[in-house]
Amino acid sequence: MASPCDEGSFAALLPKLTLEEKVALLSGTTFNSTPGVSRLGIPQIKVADSINGIRPSTLDSDMTTACFPSTTCLASTWDSELLERMGEQLGHEAGLKSAQVVLGPTINIHRDPRGGRNFECFSEDPLLSGQLAGAIVNGIQKNGVGACPKHFVCNDSETMRHYYNVKESPHGRTLREVYLAAWQHLLRVSDPVAIMTAYNQVDGAFCSENKTLNTDILRETWGYRGALMSDWFATRSTAASIKAGLDLEMPFPILRGPELIKEVETGAVSEAEIDRRVLKMLELRDRTKACHSDAEERSETSKETNQVARELAAGGLVLLKNESNTLPLSYSQPIKVAVIGEFANEPVVTGGGSASCKPQYKDKPLELLQQAFNDDSTVQYSPGVRTRRIIPTAPTNRLTSADGRPGVDVAYFNNTNPTRPILTEHQATPHVFMLGHFKPGLHVPGSRLELTTTLTPSTSGTHTIAVRCTGAFTLTVNGTPVLLRSTQPSITTEQFIFNHILLETRTTRSMTAGESYAIHLVMHSRTELVQREPTPYAATLGFEEEYSEDAAISEAAALAGQADVSVVFCGRSDQYESEGFDLEGMEMPANQIRLIEAVAKASKRTVLVMHCGNPLDVSPFVDSVQAVLLAHFPGQEGAKAVVDVLTGKVNPSGRLATTWWNRLEDAPSFGRFPAVEGGDGPEIRYSEGLAVGYRCDGVAWRARWPFGFGLSYTEFGYDGLQVTVDGKSLRCLVGMTNIGQREGREVVQLYVRGFKSDTVWKPERELKAFTKVLLQPGERRMVELHVDLDIACSYWDEGGRTWRLEEGTYGIQVGDCQGDFSVPKTTEWDHL
Questions:
Q1: Same-domain check for residues 432 and 374
Q2: What positions does the domain PA14 occupy (predicted)?
Q3: Is 156 marked active-site?
């Protein structure tokens, strides 16, 4: 067999392929791979999630990876050069996981602060989203690994994402100037090897078979030449998806394979159309280093990778409030610091879903703060309230199996022989997970599992026992049934993977410390296989010992009262923000609000370190605290970055990439999110039109902290703005001075203010260029920004279906400097 690396071009092998081989190349074979053709040396392609950490092939693998900050943190850096360096490290990490294509970045728009997957996306602004994503793509693809940005297009809600229809025309201003614009900006600065289509419909056609989007706009108008793949289980047709330009169905041949061959035989699809799709899959192999796809997957720590991760986390932290110079924490005189909150000792690193990963390590902010002050007595800790949506898995050290080992015994039975197990095994944790692939010989449907153990609590009290099962179950304690569900839960495979609270059933029981309780869980398999998706088969035993929330808050407040400053770690984790579901509101968990209010009342000064991917409603407590630091989901180096900023080792330079609203009702999408039932099924209407985020009217009074906002430990001054039009280019030159006492980085943001027109509404201002500069105290520098005139000033003419540039006078804003420039004549075009 020829080696893949020996071929000059895989695309040249197209004439040698049989129809069956061609069709096989147009579907995946596993959750992360596509087939090859061994007789011609055409290798498989392996793909891997995500830009926040390259995950291993196996879903339930314990293998770790370098964990980078969430994408909202990356966007808050506003630093294209740094993100390109990150992309290079991702390419290296993909090699360690034997993958040729990285699935990401995700550039869907932050339309609503309840979007469950917003943490995985960049911004409410299309230019910022597209240009930063393009920088990551360029870095990934420097050394032969490919990038696959997602999801094309309008996948900005998780609720009913497989079905909802965005009732907007691809030829309307809303899609062209906001949602499609992010992709145009991406493709202006990068050339990804592949693009992933979205689950949803746009204008009545699913994205996987939307010819207007995939062929007319993406390929023909914009000239994109890479491959198009479906999201997982998102292909909705056989012939239509081929004709619309979808090259690859993932992860399995459900609507292709034999079905596609039949369509060719009947003439519904021509072999020439098949060839066009196969050619893209061969060209994809030409652009990636497919010759290493069979290497053993591994995890390696790297100083260079960790340094980039730390710079990203530090560069994306946003200082939102800092009264009376509360931060940085002073070393000049002895101070007592109260560190409060579970997240200080159990750090948050990532959101949930396909953008999550197992980090190589987790530093604890508490320990790092104690090391920074070099005195354990200076920094005291209280965990405060518990921060979780689901009951934790019962800890191994509280469980004893039949032979005395820590853990549980699991036995599997088929209904055909219900008294004799087909398999018995010991597990350290009470968690069984199967998805589509089952234990050898296990019948699905037609089987059950039995989990047995002895549970010994460490304290006396009314404790909580929870069960998360995919089928009907019975739980007994000391032979007495305490929980049961006679039917299987009505959930999708997607909900099973991401939204565990939908599986959970709880009960409380009075238990005594040191006393042993016999636990027996019987769960039946689902009564039928799930169609078109893998069938879940899973059971988890949860356990949590009683604690008093009031006592926990009182303890934290008492500690805060003895300190000079209290640092409260709060917010959300991957249990709250995840792929697979949207949030219900902007509120922080109620028990955390109570904790913050009590600490702020008792403390001399209070600092909040907030973990989240979405804006939070901080109105209950923001006026009572002196400083607020937005830490996002900062990755495995995030704890170091947070402590660096808190102690002044690093000057914060992050700027918000999404508006933080005063209340949910202030968001332009309020009342229009998520999907609602329409005449033909669930639908979304972008009724706010172009007024997404900071583009909306009244943003000055509706926003708590505006788009682009962020404080520093130094100050910057702007002067001498010069604006010139040179041919088709807009050139801005502005003076910048660090007028403070510390080295600092400033994000220079260029906004264009539109001309006034009675017929064409334009936002008050729009971001058109940005850069990030480092200045020493007292240093002055002239900063130059260039932007094409058409990008700076054009609007989409719906009637003419073209971009139009109206002559007139336009305004410019850079920092606190303003100017104007003239566009001499009307032009129009429709290109990338």
A1: no
A2: 403-557
A3: no
Domain check: are 145 and 273 in the same one?
Answer: yes
Please give the tally of structural domains in the chain.
4
Residues 160 and 281 in one domain: yes
Report helix, strand or coil for 622.
helix
* 758 vs 831, higher pLDDT: 758
Report the amino acid identity of residue 689.
Answer: G
* Residue 814 covered by a domain: yes
Over residues 98-109, the mean pLDDT reads 97
CA distance 409 to 28: 36
pLDDT in tens, 316-330: 999 999 999 999 998
CA 489-492-498 angle, to 5 degrees, is: 100
Helix (H) or strand (E) holding 379: strand 379-382
In whole angstroms, what is the distance from residue 642 CA to residue 191 CA? 34
Concatenate the DSSP letters of all residues of 431-459 into one string: EEEEES---TT--SSSEEEEEEEEE--SS
Over residues 198-223, the pLDDT tens digits come to: 999 999 999 999 999 999 999 999 99
> Do 101 and 193 sit in the same domain of this protein?
yes
Which residues does residue 414 pair with via DSSP β-bridges, in sequence order? 447
Is there a contact between 821 and 785 (Cβ–Cβ < 8 Å)? no
Phi/psi at 729 (nearest 5 deg)?
-120, 140
Region of poorest pLDDT, from 254-268, 434-448, 814-828: 814-828
Given a contact cutoff of 8 angstroms between Cβ atoms, the answer to whether 763 and 793 are in contact is no
Q: Is residue 114 within 8 Å of residue 159, measured between CB atoms?
A: no
Tokens of 18: 């049989």
Residue that is written with structure tokens 């690994």 in the block: 145
The pLDDT of residue 727: 82
Q: Is the dihedral of CA 149, 150, 153, 154 positive or negative?
A: negative
Average pLDDT over residues 177-191: 98
Considering the candidates 49, 112, 125, 231, report the single residue annotated as catalytic.
231
Statement to judge: residues 106 and 247 lie in one domain: yes
**Token pair for residue 810?**
């336009």
Can you tell me the distance from the alpha carbon of 671 to that of 679, in angstroms, rounded to the nearest whole number?
18
Q: Point out the domain boundary residue: 515, 543, 571.
A: 543
Residue 479's domain comprises: 396-543
Residues in a beta bridge with 267: none
Q: How confident is the model at residue 2 (pLDDT cuts 50, 70, 90)?
A: very low
Backbone angle region of 473, left / alpha / beta, with phi > 0 → left and psi within -120 to 50 → alpha: beta
How far apart, in whole angstroms, are the C-alpha atoms of residue 510 and residue 539? 24
Per-residue pLDDT of 535-565, as tens digits, reads: 999 999 999 999 999 999 999 999 999 999 9
Report the C-alpha gap between 744 and 715 in whole angstroms.
Answer: 8
pLDDT at 3 over 50: no
- What CATH number does the domain containing 247 carry? 3.20.20.300
pLDDT score at 831: 55
| pLDDT > 90 fraction of the chain, expressed in percent and rounded | 90
- Answer whether 183's CB lies under 8 Å from 229's CB: no
Count how many residues are written for the chain.
832
Q: How far apart are CA 110 and CA 679, in angstroms?
A: 26
Closest CA to 449 of 477, 428, 430: 430
Rounded Cα–Cα distance for residues 21 and 580 (Å): 34
Between 333 and 166, residue with greater pLDDT: 166
Q: What does the pLDDT read at residue 681?
A: 92
CA distance 497 to 500: 7
